[in-house]
Amino acid sequence: MEAPSSKRFCCSVCVHTVKSIPVIFILCILAWSYYAYVYHLCLSRVTSVELSIPYLLVYHIILVLFLWSYFKTIFTKPSGAPPNVLTDDLSLYYFRLPEEVFEEFNKNPIDLSRQSAILRDFAENLPIMTFTNTNDIRFCDKCKIVKPDRSHHCSVCRKCVLKMDHHCPWVNNCVSYSNYKYFILFLAYGHLMCVYVAATTVEYVIKFWDITTDMRIQEGSYKIHIIFLFFIASMFSLSLFSLLAYHIYLVSKNRTTLESFRPPKFLDGSDKNGFNLGCCRNIQEVFGKEVLLWPFPIDTRLLTCLGEGVSFPINKTVPEAQSLLFSDVNNQKTSIDFEHYDTSLFTSVLISDDNMSSTDTNAPKYQDLIQI
């Protein structure tokens, strides 16, 4: 028995509100810090106009870039693994299994070898270079798609996400192919703002504790605001620096957070440097080729040809012959003829976030064939 639509709506609102608590917390901290820095420091304590104007100007420039990057990270929807995709070389690939093929796949859940053969037949012409630990095709039974390289299923977003790095509660979104640049800029400008605020307030914090100055004996709540602002900015700068340094390292090696803990599996074994193209090209894959646009949270993926989210260039040490495009790894065939399959069945399948339901209780789970 289905719950009334009003109850489902209330539950959905409650869930989204709970998920948004970390974002609301950050925005509240930011609003208070703006009040403390602009009003209590620059407009009340800094008496020199020649000093307060540059303080405010630099602070607002950093703040705008930070908010721009932060909101782009939050509101950019993670790119889901598509049912079909047209790549840069105008090749059309189908990743979602049609209903007929999925029913054939489900006929005998115990026969894993037949399921593996069905997936291999279906994925024979797909640009796939990575596999499960048992050299099977990476398949998601919730989305009913063959996973493109570097994609993973996010249980929070309820879909397979292209080049998924991790799901971050502080942005209430998946950090992935579609917003990874924005996320790094968010960390960079957040760290820069904390360092700038700490550097411009430390002078007054020292004066508050200096017995030779008049500020020590002055009363006022501004002292508490400025002191707390200095310590909070200092603590946040340390945490943001550690995250920023780690992700800069990952970008230089062309790895995601998931790949750093579980290296991608190629046919000849796991290789953590499988997508490492060299530091310069690795950075271009995330930030694009236009260096002047790197500091701005705008989409520069059209300015780079190093991966379109579905397929990615690989390290030369990983032979291209490992792909199913160039080798017949498993000669076992099924009764399904994909070569003469009616492609209209594929093109008529459309996927939306709502349709990719993860609550299909009738579909059995094939954990042996699924790599998360």
From TrEMBL:
In the UniProt record, does the keyword Isomerase occur? no
| Protein name per UniProt | Palmitoyltransferase
What does the record give as the reaction this protein catalyses?
L-cysteinyl-[protein] + hexadecanoyl-CoA = S-hexadecanoyl-L-cysteinyl-[protein] + CoA
User: What is one cellular component GO term in this UniProt entry?
Assistant: membrane
A Gene Ontology MF term for this entry?
protein-cysteine S-palmitoyltransferase activity
Q: What is its EC number?
A: 2.3.1.225
Which Pfam family is an annotated match for this chain, by its short name? DHHC
* Annotated TM spans: 21-40, 52-71, 182-206, 226-249
Q: Could you give the domain comment from the record?
A: The DHHC domain is required for palmitoyltransferase activity.
Question: Where mainly located?
Answer: membrane
Q: Where in the cell is it found?
A: Membrane
Which part of the chain is the Palmitoyltransferase DHHC domain? 135-261
Keywords associated with the record: Acyltransferase, Membrane, Transferase, Transmembrane, Transmembrane helix
